[in-house]
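so ive been stuck on this for like two days lol. basically i have the seq below and the ligand is NAP, smiles is in there too. i just want the complex predicted, nothing fancy, no docking runs or whatever. if the output looks off dont worry ill sanity check it later, just need somthing to start from for the group meeting slides
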Amino acid sequence: MASTPPYTLKWGIMATGRIASSFVKDLLTDPTTRNVYDVRHQLVAVASSTSKEKAVDFCARVKAPSGVKTYASYTELVADPDVDIVYVATPISHHFQNTMLALEAGKPVLCEKAFTVTASQTKKLVANARAKNLFLMEGVWTRHFPLSVNVRELVSSGAIGTVYRVIADNSFNQDLPDSKLGFADSHRMVNLDLGGGAMLDLGIYSLTWLMQILYHLQPEKEKESPTVVSAINKYHTGADEMTSFIIQFPKHKSMGIGMTALRIASGVDYGFTGGPAIKIQGSGGEIQVLGPAFKPRQYRVIKKDGGGEIEVVDCPFPKDKNRDDWGHGMYWEADECARCLRDGKLESDTLPLDESIVIMELMESVLKQGGVEYPEIITNDVYDPNSLLNTGKA
Ligand SMILES: NC(=O)c1ccc[n+]([C@@H]2O[C@H](COP(=O)([O-])OP(=O)(O)OC[C@H]3O[C@@H](n4cnc5c(N)ncnc54)[C@H](OP(=O)(O)O)[C@@H]3O)[C@@H](O)[C@H]2O)c1
């Protein structure tokens, strides 16, 4: 019997920066290197808000096949009838306007994290996608790793009993003399105009670990949104540079403790020789996740009644030998988009849109409690196709 050919998803890429390049290189890897046979990806078009040359250079950088269209504006990209889905890889400041631009043109969207700057913006994106019957997902790649799937399944199966606490840290080693950080003040990591700060860029991964265990796995009928308290140290640009938060689920008697910081690291080598940055603690044992919170590579299961035995599981990121041994790990979230579109699903079960809204509400509250304020142009929730954020002028 002939096997069904894989479903092909045709991608349009909005922006030509660092993560767009990693994502596209993953799209171009052979899915069978990661044992995926039911879906595949095709790069159809790339747009730069700055110039066509930038889009052409991008295609050369990622070794794109010939025939990929290049545009000098995001508006042209979203109007391309060959594009099935738009990947938004602009700075966080731009996500609301750019995603709305694509949705308004009738395109499904995968938008990089953090979804938006405010919860109200995320709610408007979700409402618009639902009104137009368009697929939409926040690009939190970590959720789709086999490691995350395994860990969620382990917790659901009761392998460590009832989970009462998750601790997660995602901190970068960027301290320099004279109280500086290793970024120019204009860099998107610390520039408020671009949605900068530790929480939205890095803390979201700590929060991801807390939420995918403590919230996502709650049965639908028992869903309890958490409360949150936070503490923030600010950088001289006004962005948050060290942020800690506690989310609490009183009905479930559980808590999550999340941390992020730009000056110090989560551990000298992300827990492989020191303590793990992620600990999932249950009544019957503990799961420790090793490696950076955004890209962990190993987990350990330590059971209370296991006589000290530690089960160690490695979760590699498959590489494509025919594409310079490339394989970053973003292909799994791309595969999820392909399966959702193939199956007519408007959102992913792995990161449902209502959960993205709760996450954005938490992050907004964390930042408000610490007194972080972003400029009006990036917090307003009124869509404007001619916004400077859509035309490459901001
Ligand atoms: N999933 C992950 O692991 C991961 C890792 C890093 C970053 N990210 C997320 O990806 C997004 C982009 O991060 P990045 O590291 O790729 O940033 P980046 O290298 O600075 O690239 C951002 C791109 O956005 C476009 N852009 C439009 N207006 C801009 C403006 N005013 N300033 C700067 N760029 C502008 C530019 O492309 P054109 O000029 O060609 O339009 C630029 O190349 C962020 O939301 C970030 O949180 C995710």
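The radius of gyration is 21 Å. The chain has a mean pLDDT of 96.
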